[in-house]
Amino acid sequence: MQSSTFPLKPIVDFNQTSQKCPFSAPLPFIMLLYATGILDFDDDEEDDENDEILRELRQKQAELREICAHNLQATKRLYKVAREEMDKQELKRKLAASDAEVDSSY
Question: In the predicted model, is pLDDT for residue 36 greater than 90?
Answer without folding.
Answer: no
